[in-house]
């Protein structure tokens, strides 16, 4: 089995970390990033490519001319545009994996755009943060090209779970899972805020340990609530995608919408001094700060 | 320490189970239930009292005339009315424990109604189903009479966690905890329903085990989702109380309202043949049945 030639559309933090792992495993890795056209950002991309041991292409056409596997890792708002630009330069025998964090409907749209090219499409979902594990990050893939992409991934030392040939399957698992985790985070907040009016936030979190499986619920709640402090706006934004996914499936996004709304009220109420370390030792302070009505103090 | 004389206002399933335990432990236990005035229901109450070894009083006044501890265990919609009827017959030295599943504001209202009587009030929360454990059910108490009620409870073989002398503390813990558990149940449903459109409901539930503490998440999700099937309407109704609690505290009940709404759509979509045993082996069937748009088939 020959080593695959891999191309990256987008060389941000995630793309660079995976590309570096593939390059270190002996693959030919080339990348192109739209930021190369921006004089203010081009240098940063070039530095990232150098650090990753990745060659840069002059444009999409050049990049795609000889790649076996193309990975799209851009920001979710430009994922469709990048696929549109790529489509004319792709052909049969190539595999195009969209690894962006988007909802199933957007994966289906990208698959449709690439259809005429003859390239096989992969709906891919990165299931954890990439910095750290790099190309060993857990990945789910579905769609017609998933098996081929997964075998190349394995050849380079990564591991992919292939779900089915249904485009949308990988991204629905990622977002549905995200709904539960972020929804739970919002439930902890809403419960803690109201319980703290009676001085009992910590007791609620502690008592959940007697009901839910596992034993570290107080800690886990603190961890999740700390995530709101650090990444609340981004997490709320991700829930907008989950809500769109439900709507596209003809379902009312009750929990998804409420989760996004709750995370946003918490973020709005948290002052810059609120840190995860203050949790759950001082839920009272955070509960006051997260009050829907009171502005942050 | 003399054995307390205990009175029960309300001798439904929960009241009878606790009363039976107290009677068996040697307490003098008497009860009165409004259903005794209804010819169609009086016989059932009498039979329940006989089975529990509990004497029946002729009315509220007689019941309360010599009781140390009075436990109100009626339906939540009549808890305030029952307290109103009791107030003129209570006096200093007596303890009145409202053990109904109501929100803190309602406990505060009952406390206010009983204030002039001189009886000490207890906000009590039963933290599990009573049939089975009986008077050994986990109980939280707060309010001025909590310590005395708890020591009587202990004398009779039960165990009470006393939180504080703040009326509302026990009920806020119960409802805030309930919000997390039922909210999680709704998150499982919403996630499973949308994921099953792509054939991946089980994978989402299974994959949560890699993130959440503990290891039996697939089973726990199945258990909670089964609760929706059996008790969804009652659970949604409880969430209405949670939402009122948040509103009374000046907070938007984002998650509480969404949880109630999601449970109701699931209940509406579940046919009479849906059983917990079909979970998670057949989430597809339940997901189809729980579709927001499609009526139950």
Automatic annotation (TrEMBL), chains A, B:
Q: Where is the Phosphogluconate dehydrogenase NAD-binding putative C-terminal domain?
A: 195-266
Any one Pfam family here would be: DUF1932
The family database entries (Gene3D superfamilies) matched by this protein are listed as: N-(1-d-carboxylethyl)-l-norvaline Dehydrogenase, domain 2, NAD(P)-binding Rossmann-like Domain
The organism's place on the tree of life at top rank:
Bacteria
Provide the 6-phosphogluconate dehydrogenase NADP-binding domain boundaries: 5-132
Annotated region (Disordered) at 274-297
Molecular function, one GO term: NADP binding
PANTHER family with a match to the protein in the record? CYTOKINE-LIKE NUCLEAR FACTOR N-PAC, OXIDOREDUCTASE GLYR1-RELATED
Name of this chain's protein: NAD(P)-dependent oxidoreductase
Which species is the source of this protein?
A: Egibacter rhizosphaerae
